[in-house]
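Dig into my protein:

:::
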Amino acid sequence: VVYDPTKHQRRLDLDFPTPEGETILYKAVRYRYVKSVARLLELGVNTNLQVTAMGNDYGNTALHALVTDLHAGEQSSAQLHILSMLLRHPSTDAAIYNGLGKTPYMSVSAKHQKLVS
């Protein structure tokens, strides 16, 4: 019998949430890891998963997290690059409502007109 490692490989679920209800994409976006976000998008992570644990971030997607940071006044080239990647990704739904009843656009539009126009 010849050992075939491909028959015994386990696939890592990149969409599996942490105990806080956050995905690896959500964390990578919050920490501004541009290369990690790019690779996760290449691997086909779900960009629309929402934080499942109760708290301030309840119902947020990675895009919600990013625009929340932008709304708070934090703005870096890494964030803008990630914003572009997320918005260009074909599966990203920018119309998802979070636990506060806001879409990412609603969260950012009041303060950052240049980003949304």
Remarks:
- The first helix runs from residue 24 to 30.
- The chain has a mean pLDDT of 86.
- The two ends are 63 Å apart (CA to CA).
- The chain has six helices and no strands.
